[in-house]
Amino acid sequence: MAAPMRRWIVRKLMSRFLKRPKLDQIHCCYCNTAKKRYDLVVIGGGSGGLACAKEAAELGKKVVVLDYVAPSTQGTKWGLGGTCVNVGCIPKKLMHQAALLGQAIEQSRAFGWNVPPEVQHSWETMCTAVQGHVKSLNWGHRVQLQSKKVDYLNAQGSLVDQHTVKAVHGKGEEYLETDNIVVAVGGRPRLPFEVSGVLQHAITSDDIFWMKKSPGKTLVVGASYIALECAGFLTGLGFDTTVMVRSIFLRNFDQQLANLLADYMENEGTRFIKQSIPISIDKLSSGQLNVTYRDSTGTTHEEVFDTVLIATGRKAETGKLGLENIGVSLDAESSKVIGGHGGDTERSTVQHIYAVGDVLHGRPELTPVAIKAGKLLAHRLYNGSTMQMNYEQIATTIFTPLEYGCVGISEETAVEKHGEDNIEVYHAFYRPLEFTVPNKDSSQCYIKVICEREHPSKILGLHLLGPNAGEIIQGFAVAIKAGLDYSTLVSTVAIHPTCAEEIVKIHITKRSGLDPTSTGC
Ligand code: FAD
Ligand code: NDP
Q: How far apart are CA 38 and CA 381, in angstroms?
């Protein structure tokens, strides 16, 4: 073959295989059809994925988001936006609000409202309203993607090689070639399959917010965020609600507050079956569910419920992604993507494949965490930023009837990390003014501030059990992130009369043994 001809062929091959063409569509070697080309493919249209995709598009990149919702074990499906919007934070907070309003109606009598003795709640009306809002958010997400020129595919994504994502949708499949990939597939409820009948008869948080008919007498299995929040609003809405607790309440949270919270819920009518696990769930001819469970002595018991809600944790949605085949390492236990490679908190073992949100191993499973990590990543990828996500001191709130908000570490962790002699724990039991007129029990309204003992007594953790704890803790989280110490905290003038003022007035140490009951103004 003549030299010019050889050079021409080599040039052609080089341009085909070494330099990725700048065209929008190239030929696919997997399906022999046109293959779309992107700067960024995001798999998962939830909190983290959408945030990252929109930010990257604003920075001028060609981006596609794939979102696919596999129906729940009970067949529930939902739209774009991920867990938070459809089966998490949003419907949960609205149902929490519904329950709080019920309490408020009851208490309003003491403030002079002439409320009829029997006030009824309609599950159907609440669900229709909540679902209506969720659907408006689904729509809003689609509109935003469109306006920011992010392509959206209602498709299940998987990786076929390090630069190619396969998208399977109603019309078939297509292949997307890309420079960077962000895995943001979140997680789904994990069922304890050792419990016979769990798959057939139990619901999860994927179903509760979309139930057409009211759940009736409900057993909630689990004792963490989801279990306590769901049990809290179900009790508040008037359902006979029982929580089955395997070991402790709210693992990894300050155990004093976790137990106070459980006490409050118990006083409000939630029943707890402690140190027990379910063994089987059998459907009776009445349609009800007979639950057999075992307590810590090994004795078995049975009880009939209308609904069994399993809230025993969540698992990452990485099973069908093909990540390991292309070199992305997953944690053996959690199946989540291991990040932190090359000094980048969200980078996987493959240089241009990242993970954000619940699917990233060892990070808090919270919406604002996923969103912030997604946005920061987009700026590192496309805006020359070097800013990494800071996963420390992230505030959170459990939206139970009495909310538990916190930022920083628990007393247990503080003792373990710093030693008992090196920390000071300030605490207070307080009475919200709103509780006085309706004579509401405030025995569990409690604040704990954990500080370093040495001057200037930097604050390590702040824990609050009380009304609107989420709203209160958010502001303090800013101060704590900025390095708040005890002397600055107590030099702050209070806003009176509020619950939050009790935090800036805190002065009794646990070490002193003095009565920590706040005496008011
Ligand atoms: P997700 O929001 O789960 O989004 C992932 C998306 O990817 C989903 O739509 C999923 O269907 C899709 N997907 C999965 N696999 C594929 C695939 N192969 N191809 C295409 N798409 C795929 N957090 C808070 O901060 N505050 C709260 O009050 C709060 N309450 C919660 C209450 C409940 C009941 C639950 C379950 C969670 C709650 N959370 C809360 C946690 C919060 O919802 C999650 O941390 C957050 O949604 C994680 O976002 P993400 O982007 O990682 O994943
Ligand atoms: P968690 O993993 O936090 O808790 C699981 C709970 O289930 C624990 O109480 C655990 O008990 C119990 N459990 C596990 N396996 C079994 C079993 N086989 N039988 C009986 N009990 C069992 O999961 P959640 O589902 O509550 O929450 C998942 C995440 O979602 C949270 O970490 C949080 O980040 C996020 N979330 C955030 C919310 C918010 O911000 N307000 C609200 C809801 C969720 P044990 O302690 O004995 O292991």
A: 14
